[in-house]
Every structure is written in C-alpha cells, then in structure tokens.
Amino acid sequence: MKILYHIGRYFWMLGKVFSKPERHKMYGRQLIHEIDALGINSIGIVVIISLFIGGILTIQLAYNLMNPLYPKTLIGLGTRDTLILEFSSTIIGLILAGKIGSNISSEIGSMKVTEQIDSLEIMGVNSASYLILPKIVAVVFIMPFLVILSIFFGLLGGLVVGPLTGVVTVPDYIDGIRYFFIPYYVTFTLVKSIFFGFLIASVPAYHGFFVQGGALEVGKASTKAVVNTNILILLFDLILTRLLLT
User: Fold this and answer.
1) For 114, which DSSP code?
2) Per-residue tens of pLDDT for the chain, all 246 residues
3) Model's pTM, two decimal places?
4) 132: exposed, middle or buried (Cβ count in 10 Å: 0-12, 13-18, 19+)
C-alpha cells in the first residue's frame, strides 16, 4: 500500500505543478536558466559517452559478424540501428537520471529542509509550480536534442574506432549507415526521450519536495530519486517499445 501512497502523492504534486502560473515572465526567466543548468551543461558528458558507446558497439558487432558470408556494411547498419533504437535514448536517459536527477532532488530537498519552500508558500507563491515546472519543461525540451546529439557522436565514434582497429573500412561503415534507413526509428527514439525527460525531472523533484529531516535525509532522497528514476525509465522503455514497435 505504501507504493499507492507515493503514486497518489506524486500525482497530487503534479496537479500543483501544472496549475496556472501567477507570473509568466518569471517562469520564462527560470526556464532559460534551467535549460542552461540542466541541459546545456550535460552536453559534454553526452558527447564523451556517445563516442565511447559508438566505438564499443562497432567493435563488438564486427566480432559477432566475423563470417565471410556477412557483408561488412552490416557493422555500420547494426551500430546505427542500435544507437537509434536503444542506446542513445535509454543509456543517455539512465546517465542523465544520475546527473540531472540528483541535482534536482538535492536542490529542492535542501530548500525544503531549510524551510525556503515554506517561506514561498507563506508569501503566496505556488512553490511546486515555481520550483518544479521550469525544470520539467527544460528537461523535456532539451532531451530530444541530447539524444540526436548522442546518435551523431555515437556514429562518429564508430567511424573513428572501426577503421583504427581494422574491423571495418570507412566506405563499408558509411554504406552500412546509409543502407535501409527507416525514419520512424528516429521518431520512436524521440518519443521515448520526451517520456524519459519527464521522468528524469519529475521523479527526483518529488523526492526532494517531500523530504523531511536534515542533510542526511536529503542525501538519501537523492539516492532514492536516482534509483527510482532508473527503474521507471527501464519500465517505460519496455512499455513504449511494445506499443510503438508492433
């Protein structure tokens, strides 16, 4: 029954978050700040991880396709489809759940335990909407761009590592990337990224908003936020894959 309590409280919080803002200009300024703090500052880690993932995928696919009957172009094709369908959305989502999620949870949790949120409520400000809404909108907005960036640099990582290790030539790799491309796969991964972005922002915000105690409890809430967000990302990955790829 405890899980039902948390689900109910989570949706109650979302009701407050999406209530009508009092001052749109204030929310606009906060949104730009959150896009920079949560999204733009995550580009570096997305690029680095995607380069390595692309290179690793290329090598693994090459060794799994070591058969003279298989054309080398399958390496580029496999790397492309794996990045688009799964890795660039799900893996990046899991990583950003740790980076962005812990940031959101600890920031809001610290404000909660230092009674700053109570002060906002006393002043008549909808604290849930003011603190959480810009974060949710910012992450949902920036996630598709980060996923596209991840796909590009993942393919680039494969293009660099494949020829350097001798597992595939540049022409074969590029031909594989271009072969039998299905545009719907990109639509599918962007839809997933929007759902993941919502979870990455809202679940940690929930844990931070209802934390009680001191600094130790804020740390525990941040850990719970990351773990629960990762579980929900994998759950929704399964659900969306079943619904959108059948």
Assistant:
1) T
2) 678 888 888 888 888 888 866 666 777 778 888 888 888 888 999 999 999 999 999 998 888 877 777 788 888 888 898 999 888 889 999 999 988 988 899 888 888 888 888 787 787 778 888 888 889 999 999 999 999 999 999 999 999 998 888 888 888 889 888 888 888 999 999 999 999 999 999 999 999 888 887 778 888 888 899 999 999 999 999 999 999 887
3) 0.90
4) buried
